Amino acid sequence: MDKIVEICCGSYEDALMAYQGGAKRIELNSALFLGGLTPTISSLLLIKKHTDLEVVAMARPRGGGFCYSTADFESMVLDAELLLQQGADGIAFGCLEKSCRIDKVQTKEMLSVIKQNKGYGVFHRAFDCVDDPYGAMEELIELGIKRVLTSGLRAKAIDGVDLIADLQKKFGAHIELLAGSGVNVGNARLIMEKTGIYQVHSSCKSWITDETTIGKYVSYSYAGSPHEKDYETVSAELVKNLLESVR
Question: For 231, phi and psi rounded to 5 degrees?
Answer without folding.
Answer: -125, 150
